[in-house]
User: Fold this.
Amino acid sequence: MRVSLAALIALHRSAESLALKPGRIRALASGGYHSPFKGRGMEFDEVRPYMQGDDVRTLDWRVTARTGRPHTKLFREERERAVLLWIDLRSPMFFATRGAFKAVRAAQAAALLGWSAVRQGDRLGALLFSEQSHVELRPKRGKPPLLHLLRQIALHDAWQVRTPVRDPGVGAEALIRALSRLRRVAQPGSLIILLSDFARLNEQGSAHLVQLARHSDLVLADIHDPLEADLPPPGRYRVSDGASFLNVTAEDPRYRQRYRQRFATQQEQLRQLCRRHGMTLLTLATAEEPLAALQRGMGIGR
Assistant:
């Protein structure tokens, strides 16, 4: 139901088996990752016939002498990458029927990704948000910024006992604000990983994602509970949000079908969004350990 700083720090051992592989890089930078952009750099890439406008200092004289035609060397520059974690701590994330709350899984996944990024020398930043607050951490390199992020996650006020937010409009507005802020702070070429159940994602929110995907690599980690996909066996159930109780009847087969179809439609819309705009979709269930889901989904080609 909640996380501790010690538990998030302890995940550094598990993160050793998780690699954040670079995807399609769309912007120039400098650092430790290869990009498709070729230019003068430190690492030799290939030789091709000389073309008008090429720098004569890059001529490969051995190949030129052997072939009788001028050839030039191409170099692959090394690129640096910023990793941004977008962590959803709104009210719908504090729910689960098995395993752990969606917010707990998001926190654990963020810790694993953070430790992996630090190990690979990436600059790590994050945005944490709920209906009431927003925390922004600019990308920095090294272990101290990661420990600060983990402390911000574990001590965030969203974990405190509070009155549930029942107005869906409040949650939608918080999501839009967080995506809008992400667009303003994300640098082109970043790897952006969004940890959320994407509840109340509307056309405006999708448009923000599309704009981000034009210049950065986006991974949407969709966190859901099995109950959100299908109702339990037919019967009557008493449920609570911690403040009030509700009796639910799950016997009508037509209602059960509509319930399943609604979730399936939402998932298909998310898949289509990712497919059309070059994003990576990763699914994480509350009953599943985050490491397994991240290992399965990170670094897989589109």
Summary: Residues 23-30, 33-42 have pLDDT under 50 and may be disordered. The chain has two domains: 5-20+82-297, 33-79.
